[in-house]
């Protein structure tokens, strides 16, 4: 979910981001065979560029490269979701603690703004309007990134972003929306940020991540 604008991107980078996004949001399904001729038509780049893109996605564990058999979208499993969630928790709690200690007024304003966007989408979801789930999850991503954005490590931010994306993919596949519970936890995290209460925020974050996992699994769509 990078912030580079389309106009600034080369065609190969633009295609990479489109394919990656289509995997994360479930338009390319787990286990789906990625046929190069079809991808060439859909994404407007050459077969050689597609191979580079798919190998890059394979390094991120979003695509499985099978030698002469080609490429498939990586499958999903309960074990993988739990592993991703555990890694997200480890990274995000460390980054959040560092960020709360270093965050200034500008960081605080960014956190408030990110939460405002997310809360508006959560109200739409709560009302039964699920027509824009992608924007909802993008704002979820942006809020959690804002919380840890003062951690002082671009490597930590980038690593967390990659893990969060994989976690998001499971939520999108399960269409997992926890309603008032998740919205309340987001409000609590915002309150903790404004008070710089990292200890309480870490406790809420653990419950938030674990609750998301169990809710996704309860849909029965991940086996």
Q: Number of helical segments?
A: 9
Distance between the first and last residues' Cα: 26 Å
Fraction in beta strands? under 5%
- Spell out the helices and strands N to C: HEHHEEHHHHHH
> Architecture of the largest domain in CATH?
Up-down Bundle
Overview of the molecule:
- This protein folds into 2 domains: 6-73, Orthogonal Bundle (Arc Repressor Mutant, subunit A); 78-218, GntR ligand-binding domain-like (Four Helix Bundle (Hemerythrin (Met), subunit A)).
- 70% of the residues lie in helices and 4% in strands.
- The chain is built from 9 helices and 3 strands, in the order αβααββαααααα.
- The chain has helices at 11-24, 36-43, 47-59, 78-102, 105-126, 133-148, 154-174, 180-195, 198-218, and strands at 33-34, 63-65, 71-73.
- It has a 3-stranded antiparallel sheet with strand order 1-3-2.
- Helix 1 (11-24) crosses helix 3, helix 4 (78-102) packs across helix 7 (154-174) and helix 5 (105-126) packs antiparallel against helix 8 (180-195).
- The longest helix has 25 residues, at 78-102.
- Mean pLDDT is 92; it is low at 3-7.
List keywords for this structure.
3 strands, 223 residues, Four Helix Bundle (Hemerythrin (Met), subunit A), mainly alpha, three-stranded antiparallel β-sheet
Write the layout of secondary structure elements.
Elements lengths: L10 H14 L8 E2 L1 H8 L3 H13 L3 E3 L5 E3 L4 H25 L2 H22 L6 H16 L5 H21 L5 H16 L2 H21 L5
Antiparallel strand pairs: 1-3, 2-3
Helix pairs in contact: 1-3, 4-7, 4-9, 5-6, 5-8, 6-7, 8-9
Put the structure in a nutshell.
By secondary structure, this protein is mainly alpha-helical.
